[in-house]
Specification:
Layout (H helix, E strand, L loop, with lengths): L1 E6 L3 E2 L4 E2 L1 H17 L6 E5 L3 H14 L4 E2 L9 E2 L6 E2 L5 H4 L15 H4 L3 H18 L2 E4 L2 E4 L6 E6 L1 H12 L3 H7 L7 E10 L2 E11 L1 H5 L21
Parallel strand pairs: 1-10, 4-5, 4-10
Antiparallel strand pairs: 1-11, 2-3, 6-7, 8-9, 9-12, 11-12
Helix pairs in contact: 1-2, 5-6, 6-7
């Protein structure tokens, strides 16, 4: 089985939609997926309920004459730290802080760091994890510790349109790694395609392997420069976000 995770196009966050650039990106993505998705496999489409993901998916779905099931848990990750009016997004922490705490690198301990306990991160993280588990179970793969029991071996393709923050949580769950690493050491730019494929080297037991992360070849093919969204300054002196 394959799982394709696709981030939405360049966002207009105010309107929860796409910018003009985001529309161009989504159309180039649709052209690429129409050519690349195999015609001889079962393909299932899923999407975040948020407008920017729905808009991105619409161009692909229209081209293919398909529809997508909306998954509420696939919305952008909502976990926050702090209390009342001081709540902040949990997954944007400066490196000088988080890299100095060993537990952030542990799948089993990162939620126990004091900052992460001071908010609703665990509840939202578990919601996404439960959603991922249920989706993969629906398609025949049941998480059992750090591996998957294969209930129904298949060559299906799941295509999920969502967001970078929640994509990182999805990968955290599937790979049993801390999401702090995925949030901070990786970045999936707008319309980036990440592709996971199962490996069942022992019958009935599988893992997911990443064969492609953050692919933007459709943008380069269409002479569209990738967006800077989700990146930070390359050098401190740069006039880009810190």
């Amino acid at each position: 089985m394959e799982l394709w995770i696709i981030r939405h196009g360049d966002p207009d966050y105010v309107r929860d939609s796409l910018t003009e650039k985001g529309v161009r990106e989504a159309k180039l993505l649709a052209e690429r997926l129409e050519k690349q998705l195999p015609k001889d496999k079962n393909i299932y489409f899923y999407c975040s309920p948020l407008g920017r993901a729905q808009k991105t998916a619409s161009y692909t779905l229209d081209r293919l004459g398909e529809s997508a099931e909306t998954l509420d848990w696939a919305r952008e990750f909502q976990g926050t730290v702090g209390k009342l009016l001081n709540k902040q997004q949990c997954w944007d922490r400066k490196p000088n802080y988080w890299t100095g705490i060993d537990d952030y690198y542990s799948y089993d301990k990162w939620l126990d760091v004091e900052l992460m306990k001071n908010g609703d991160v665990k509840r939202h993280y578990e919601k996404v994890c439960d959603g991922v588990d249920e989706l993969l179970k629906k398609h025949g793969y049941i998480k059992s510790g750090r591996i998957y029991d294969v209930e129904s071996s298949n060559h299906d393709i799941i295509v999920l349109f969502c967001h970078f923050g929640v994509e990182s949580v999805i990968l955290s769950r599937i790979f049993s790694v801390s999401p702090m690493i995925m949030w901070h050491n990786f970045v999936a730019l707008p319309t980036a395609v990440t592709r996971l494929v199962t490996q069942e080297r022992d019958q009935g037991k599988a893992i997911f392997t990443c064969v492609q992360y953050g692919d933007l070849s459709h943008l380069y093919a269409g002479d569209e420069e990738p967006s800077f969204q989700a990146r930070y300054c390359e050098c401190y002196e740069d006039d880009t976000r810190h």
